[in-house]
Structure formats: structure tokens, C-alpha cells
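hey so i finaly got around to running the thing on Inosine/uridine-preferring nucleoside hydrolase domain-containing protein from Remersonia thermophila. pasting the sequence first so u can double check i didnt mess up the copy paste, my clipboard has been acting weird all day
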Amino acid sequence: MEDGRIPVWLDCDPGHDDAFAIILAAYHPAIRLLGISTVFGNASLEKTTRNAASVLTAIAAARSVPLYVGASQALYRPPFHAATDIHGETGLDGTSLLPEPRAEPVASVPAVDAAHDALMACPPGTAWVVATGAFTNAAALFLKYPHLVRHVRGLSLMGGALGGGFTPAVLGKVDGVPRVGNWTQWAEFNVLADPEAAAAIFGNRELARKTTLIPLDVSHMVLATEEARALLLLGKPPGGGEADGQKRPTKLRTMLVELLMFFAKTYSDVFGIAEGPPLHDPLAVAAVLAGLKDDAAHPDLQRYAVPFADQPLRSAIPTPPPENGSAAAVEAAASAGTAKPKTIGERFEVTVETVGTYEEARAGLTRTGQTVARLLPPGEEGVRIPRGLDIPRFWQVLEECVARADAAVAAAGGEDKIWGAEDDVGVAVAAAAEAGGFDGLPN
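ok and heres what it spat out for the C-alpha cells, dont ask me to read them lol
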């Protein structure tokens, strides 16, 4: 990392929450976005690829961030039904402000090969892969290029659901029945879309110990409430304080809040979560920032960290007893680093149920795609699954990235350059408010 930033390859399936993952990855000052690959999931591959190109266009990054087309279906399974009841037919329903893409995806190189080349060009132990859709591309990447496991710093995944009180998050109900998953009673959408891909990742012990998993149990703690939507729409004035209710929102901010309001309605209708939709995918991007607070080599980036909470555990490394009980012996042991065992967070062995078809899982006949996490003894390496994060800090960081995207739009020629000269922001905001918006919208 010659400039201290974290190299990140983002694999996604836009998707309302994926749009925010793209913004966070593209405009966080501590992240260097290497490229984006698309995968099937929230819509067909054709639509998720177009959506990614449109989002990159909206944030003035279509020509600076390369886009590649990934898998259209699971590694070994037939095509999967897209989540149209949550994300709509296009995958990004709910706004008329999504611009026409200004750049085409790179067609000459397969997504997995492009990711490999970009990651291998980074110094060893620096780059992350972040996957916010089905794990198909991520699994294919490490299956085709196993040497990459040792080269990367980490893999951050949004997916899975644990239940059992892992966090205080409400996972929702369907037809009055509490759920663990969000696509079946037991399975989260991304894992169910390709359970064999998830099993391949978690079954690789070397890769698992470098993997961070953000399950629904964590993402459902971060709801895009009315207050959060107001922050994203109007921003925060210099020096803090309340957002300016008379400030005219940019087209980008209006588009993003319209997307969130559509997302909020579908989550309320389908899962009964009325406070706001969970913002799943940007958390997988934010998870790569957790280590910044301890990055002594780049103190200027420490303030950009988003802290995540691991339950601390003592390692199993024993403390050798002093040869004699003297203070000198204890001091010598301490100076040698042996006086106290190392403290690390919880680590888990994660398994995924792969038996059963999509249809059997939807019918409740199997638990296909269920994610099970077994807490490992202290000192054993495994998958990191945080139990929470600094939520106000997350929203602050996300809003700052939207502000940087606004500045990039202005620097690229302004809104007219991206959206055209017509002024439809006022109409869009009024329509958003009428559809069940929130206090603080400008007149």
C-alpha cells in the first residue's frame, strides 16, 4: 500500500444497498477501489451490471473504476429467482433519477481473471475482496487461483444468518412467523443463491481465517431510519449541527433517498420491519476499515476507521511461569512478551447446508443455505463474525462519502453533464415525500 490506502476489489449485485457499498468503496479516503465485478442475485446479471454502471455514472466514477461481468448463475446450480419482491424488476426500482450508463463494462477479460490480476498487482497482505451478492465470483476466484488465498489480506462477505440471539437485531417475520433467514425460514439470500460457493469458502481453512462475515444479525442493527435518510438527503453542515432544512438536495442524494424509501416499503411489507430497511452491503465494505485504528504506519488514516465489536477472548497460548517467583523473573517474562496471553476476538467455524433444491428450500422442506457458526476455542483461527459496530460513526462516514461523490459530480461538469439539463429534483423530492417520506424535506 504505497499510499496507505486499502486496495479493495468489490463484487456486487446492485441492489439498493449495493449502491451504497459502491459509494463507500469508491469515495472512502482509506480505500483504493481496484475494480468492480457483477454477479446475479438481486436481479439478472444483465440488470445488475447495468445498475452498477449507472451508479458509477451517478457518482462520476464510470471512467475511473473498471467494471467487469461475472457469473450469471451459481457454480453448480440452475438459475436462481431474483429478489424482485424486495428490489423490484430492475433491481433498483423506486427512482427515475438513475442515469444512463456513460461507460460499458470491460468485455475482453473475465471478471475472475481481472480480479486476480488486480489483486496480485498489490503488495502481499494488503488487498481485500469484498462480496455483497452471491458468493459465486468470490469462490470461483479462489478456486481458480488458490495461490491468491495467501496473497490477499482478507475477504469480507455480506451474507448468512445465525439467529439464536447472536445479536439483539430483529430479523423480522413472514406470515407472523419469526425468521432466521430472509429468503427462507433459515437461509439468507446471498448464501442460498449459491450454497456450494459459500461452503467452498468456509471450507478452505486458510481462507476462512482471513474471512469476515457480516450476517443479517449484524446488518439488521443498521436500519436506514427516517433520521438516517434525512442525513443522506440534506447532509451535515460544516462544523456539525442539524442539517439545513432549506438546503436543496443534489440529484445524487435525492436518487439515493428515493432508493431507500422504496427499499423501506418493501422491507415493511415483506418482513414487517417498519423502522427502516437494513443497509446490509456497505457494512461488508466498512468491515475492511476496522483495522485502521491500529495502523501506526499510517496515522493520518486512523480517523477513518469504522469500529466493529468482537467479543474478546483470550488466546490459548499459555503463559510460562517464572522460574522463581521473583519480581525480576516476572519483569523479564513480560519484556519477552510472555507475561500475558494474546487477546483476540471470537472466531468461528462456519458451515453451510447444501442439501436440497431451491424449490425445496422455499417450500420449507429443507434447510438449504442455512449458515451455522460454531464458536472456536480461544486461540484457534477461523471466520470473524462481529457482533456489532459503531452505528453513528458508520452513518457519518457514509454521508461523508456521498459528499465526496457530490464534489466529484461537480468537478466532472455538474449534474447536467450526468443527468441532462432537465430539472426534476424538485418533482422527485415532492413525490418521495408524498410516498411516505420524512420530516425535514424542503418545500
